[in-house]
Write a structure and sequence with these properties.
Length: 376
């Protein structure tokens, strides 16, 4: 696909009187149009470039049948087909916006999220709770840019849609409260942030379970607020809960990964994308730094979190970082007599080391060669 967008001056006489064209991004009067589809308009070259990079290069030609009325499109079958095409566009924009947000490209995510919301309103109407995810997506993009007044407006609209829909699902409510918690944290209203993150945890546990990593994110966000308030004991307790949830989750992924060695035809895929991996790495790193910097350092917690990071980086394929965190975890666990993590950490350490040399032993052999059951 040509990465260079092309535009031309908008000629007012080419359109019916009273039909002023509006900018795709800001809805101000347009002066330029896309030369490819000739159906998308902009107030200036800066907005045209931003839209092109954000989403338009991906959907330019897909807009043509939607924005070009025909006799067929006015018939019932044509209307159904148009709705299906719009639904496809909504999903494309949602995925693009989500990917850019995971890469922390908030500015680039705005056009995709904005189009997602606008098209969703067109398809679903302006007052359905199904619009909430699109509102939250656009709010998240603007949160990253510091546009807090716009975020507050979007979340207020989302909250109203939820309040007028008593049957709204737990997952939607959980996401709404998490977004509200982030907004109140950013504005300094920590008590309101705590209330919303507590609701986040409640609805996440109802939807996904207490041991879910989604629920653990809410605990972590609560801990972050308590840390800002200087309440270290509560912060440590919540961090411990988060660490145990992630340790169980990563241990299961590690086991699956090891089993895949026995069947090379089965591809191992982590249950989260690279953007999610970066979030988890940052979260666990924050927890490890908190514990290591505390005067009352808890070796068991250091070992637990460092082992999580070692498993995370091993599953991501970075053996060097995995080795480093294995060493931290092993040193901490050895400070506690008969600590139950010592053997697991040592097994992972030897597994990672074995993959650096030839020939490579069976992962199961490496993990169990120091276990009591394998001793003569």
């Amino acid at each position: 696909m040509d990465e260079q967008p092309r535009v031309s001056q908008l000629l007012p006489l080419a359109f019916p009187r009273g039909g002023d064209k509006l900018c795709e991004l800001c809805q101000e009067r347009a002066h330029l149009q896309c030369d490819r589809c000739r159906l998308t308009f902009y107030c200036n070259a800066e907005h045209q470039q931003a839209d092109w990079v954000g989403i338009h290069q991906r959907i330019c030609q897909l807009l043509v049948p939607i924005r070009t009325p025909t006799a067929f499109s006015l018939q019932r079958d044509g209307q159904i087909e148009m709705q299906l095409k719009k639904a496809e566009l909504i999903e494309i924009c949602r995925l693009v916006a989500r990917r850019k947000l995971s890469e922390r490209k908030h500015q680039e995510a705005v056009p995709a999220a904005q189009f997602c919301l606008r098209c969703s309103i067109d398809v679903l109407g302006p007052s359905t709770v199904q619009l909430v995810p699109a509102h939250l997506l656009l709010a998240e993009a603007n949160m990253g840019l510091g546009n807090l007044s716009l975020v507050a407006e979007l979340l207020s609209q989302a909250e109203w849609l939820v309040l007028k829909s008593p049957g709204c699902g737990h997952a939607v409510r959980q996401r709404l409260h998490r977004s509200l918690g982030h907004l109140h944290t950013a504005t300094g209203d920590l008590e309101a942030a705590l209330l919303n993150f507590a609701n986040d945890v409640y609805f996440a546990s109802e939807e996904y379970g207490l041991d879910s990593t989604v629920t653990s994110d809410g605990y972590f966000l609560m801990a972050d607020v308590f840390a800002k308030q200087g309440k270290k004991s509560i912060t440590r307790s919540l961090y411990s809960t988060v660490a145990h949830i992630w340790h169980r989750h990563l241990s299961k992924l590690l086991k699956t990964h090891i089993e895949s060695f026995q069947n090379p035809d089965v591809m191992f895929e982590p249950s989260y994308d690279p953007g999610r991996q970066a979030e988890v790495d940052e979260m666990l790193g924050t927890m490890l730094e908190f514990e290591q910097d505390d005067s009352r350092k808890d070796p068991a917690q250091v070992a637990l979190v460092a082992h999580c990071l070692a498993m995370l980086w091993f599953l991501k394929g970075d053996n060097l970082k995995a080795l480093g965190f294995c060493s931290v975890a092993l040193q901490a666990s050895q400070l506690i007599p008969n600590h139950d993590l010592t053997e697991a950490v040592r097994g992972l350490l030897q597994l990672v080391q074995s993959l650096q040399t030839e020939p490579q032993p069976s992962p199961e052999d490496v993990l169990h060669q120091d276990s009591p059951s394998s001793q003569p």
